[in-house]
């Protein structure tokens, strides 16, 4: 069984159920931050960080920079803001980071049931 390990300073990885929950919440959201031709600068990271502090769940739209793909930017955003990208669809990212005080979004618990082995199922 593969065990997920959390790295200090980074949030714990999301389960599939939690990602699905966040995608459903983000469906009606409009992009709050846009990444233009300048790419992912310190100012853009600061804007994403501020928006996450306020909203917990945001959409980020990539309008410029054809040379960098959305999954590559997702990794940079995750490491730069200590957040988790719940979805990459086209040029739109759904980014989540729980508030330390008074979180509004409560993620569903991971259902970590032990799997049955071949001996137990007989």
Question: Explain this structure to me?
Answer:
This protein has 122 residues and is α+β, with helices and mostly antiparallel strands. It has a domain at 16-98: Translation Initiation Factor IF3 (2-Layer Sandwich), CATH 3.30.110.60. Helices cover 34% and strands 18% of the residues. The chain has a 4-stranded mixed β-sheet, with helices on both faces. Helix 2 (42-55) links the parallel strand 1 (31-35) and strand 2. The longest helix is centred in the middle third of the chain and has 14 residues, at 42-55.
CATH topology of the domain at 16-98: Translation Initiation Factor IF3
What does the overall shape look like?
A: globular
Strand proportion, as a percent range, falls in: 15-25%
Kindly state the percentage of residues in helix.
25-40%
Order of strands in the sheet with most strands: 1-2-4-3
The CATH homology group name of the domain at 16-98: YhbY-like
Oligomerization status of the protein chains? single chain
In the predicted model, the low-confidence regions spanning at least 5 consecutive residues are 1-7, 117-122
Order of helices and strands: HEHEHEEH
- Class based on secondary structure composition and strand pairing: alpha+beta
CATH class call of the domain at 16-98: Alpha Beta
Radius of gyration: 17 Å
């Amino acid at each position: 069984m593969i065990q997920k390990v959390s790295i200090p300073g980074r949030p714990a990885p999301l389960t599939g159920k939690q990602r699905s929950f966040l995608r459903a919440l983000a469906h009606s959201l409009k992009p709050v931050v846009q990444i233009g031709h300048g790419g992912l600068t310190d100012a853009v990271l600061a804007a994403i960080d501020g928006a996450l502090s306020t909203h917990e769940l945001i959409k980020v739209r990539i309008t410029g920079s054809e040379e960098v793909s959305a999954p590559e930017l997702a990794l940079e955003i995750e490491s730069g803001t200590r957040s988790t990208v719940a979805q990459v669809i086209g040029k739109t990212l759904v980014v989540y980071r729980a508030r330390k005080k008074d979180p509004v979004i409560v993620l569903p618990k991971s259902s970590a049931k032990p799997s049955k082995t071949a001996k137990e199922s007989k």
